[in-house]
Structure prediction request, 281 residues.
Amino acid sequence: MQPPALPVPGPLALLDTTEGFARRKKTSLWFVGSLLVVSVFILTVGLAATTRTENVTVGGYYPGIILGFGSFLGIIGINLVENRRQMLVAAIVFISFGVAAAFCCAIVDGVFAAQHIETGPLTTGRCQFYSSGVGYLPDVYQTEVTCHSLNSKCQLKVKSNTCYCCDLYNCHSTEYTPTYHEFVGVRGCQDVLHLYRLLWASAVLNILGLFLGIATAAVLGAFKDMPSSSFPASPSTDLSLSEDTQPASQSSSSFGLPPNAPPLYAPAPFLPGEKPPPYAP
Prediction:
């Protein structure tokens, strides 16, 4: 008994499979491309915030590197035919690490901007900028400036190219204050306001990268398990298969013979003891 033949999908089913694969591929490319653009912004803003001052080194640019590399692997994996699953798995792993890093950096940047930078004296012009002038090394030359409090005054040592705020410096207190009263290595007090805005922008971009990374990882996870687009077999192959499996009665009827007719090349019967005629080509 012959095993039952497997059902052959029709042209409409194959067309639906091909369209579904192309639609999923387009959606995956859109998510990965968006994540790559966001990771570039995270890297740019984070580096700008980190290099703005010398004593403030926060700035969440690490998630931009990890998410960008994961997005790059995702773009390559989507366009591959072979080894597509392995490449997409690697992309999902990097994107997952980038999501965790974006969560941590968003918290760090937001907390630092909220608790360590006071913009009141900066916006009202009560902070001063000190520059050593030409011919001095910024990291070596220091001077003492006088800060006035409510009842007294004190001396504050500052480096060159420093924006300092006496309103935020307590002369008679030895306790640690979370608010920064000086920012070293700036070109003016306006740079401190730029740093404040960059830190909040970095926090917002990291939050955006967090949610977009989760969505992209989910989309790539669903796409990597999809089979590649199938194509129907050629008509000549189907015709040859149908002719090979055609029954003998149907093939004989195709020559105009009745179904019960003997085969065309059936051997003639011979009597007992009679020899067949010699073979003639």
In short: The longest strand covers residues 142-148. The first helix runs from residue 11 to 50.
